[in-house]
């Protein structure tokens, strides 16, 4: 309480209320220590229910931690209060929905998200036992064909040398495993143009091989 005189000289009490202190939000490490037992329990149940063939314990944990950290940062940025229970439940829910913190590859036939979309399915090889004509695809030929080796070492180099220097760079980049978008950025063109080049190179190679076989 502060005593201050008024205009007529009378002493009037003035009450000053203390400003409530705002506690700092808990660090992510503190919240993570509380969430980890729940994450481990979820991961163990997931692997026990669906089998360790498709799920790795450490991978599941890392995905959940990534979702939790992303949610924590979003709440802190918006000035919201953070509690470990809602963050933990949200991370598990996102994983159960098939989302992945590192991204989902919908072209991978073993991806859970791809199978949920109905684009692929897997089964044990034992279901093909006793069915003739269905086991040939199960065995991979480790030794390449001699004709294919000669064709790639001689004919491919001959075909590649007939291409323009720019086409040679694009073909080599694609053969090294760069994606269409990455090659497009390298050469400052659109991805659609690189896709057209892919078809052009395939048609050119097939025509080159056909001419070699006819000769």
Describe the SSE topology:
Elements (H helix, E strand, L loop, with lengths): L1 E4 L5 E4 L13 H23 L6 H21 L6 H13 L15 H5 L29 H16 L3 H11 L4 H8 L3 H24 L1
Antiparallel strand pairs: 1-2
Helix pairs in contact: 1-2, 1-3, 2-3, 7-8
Describe what is shown at a glance.
The chain has 215 residues and is mainly alpha-helical. It contains eight helices and two strands; from the N terminus they run E-E-H-H-H-H-H-H-H-H. A hairpin with a 5-residue loop joins strand 1 (2-5) and strand 2 (11-14).
What portion of residues belong to β-strands? under 5%
- Adjacency order of strands in the biggest sheet: 1-2
Order of helices and strands: EEHHHHHHHH
Q: Helical percent range?
A: 55-70%
Distance between the termini: 107 Å
Compute the CA-based radius of gyration. 32 Å
Mean pLDDT across the residues is 76
How many separate helices? 8
Shape: elongated
Question: How many domains, in number, for the residues?
Answer: 2
Structural class, please? mainly alpha
Walk me through this protein's architecture.
There is one protein chain. With 215 residues, this protein is mostly helical. The chain has 2 domains: 28-116; 146-214, Arc Repressor Mutant, subunit A (Orthogonal Bundle). The protein contains 8 helices and 2 strands, in the order E-E-H-H-H-H-H-H-H-H. It has helices spanning 28-50, 57-77, 84-96, 112-116, 146-161, 165-175, 180-187, 191-214, and strands at residues 2-5, 11-14. A hairpin with a 5-residue loop joins strand 1 (2-5) and strand 2 (11-14). The longest helix is centred in the last third of the chain and has 24 residues, at 191-214. It starts with a strand and ends with a helix. The relative contact order is 0.05.
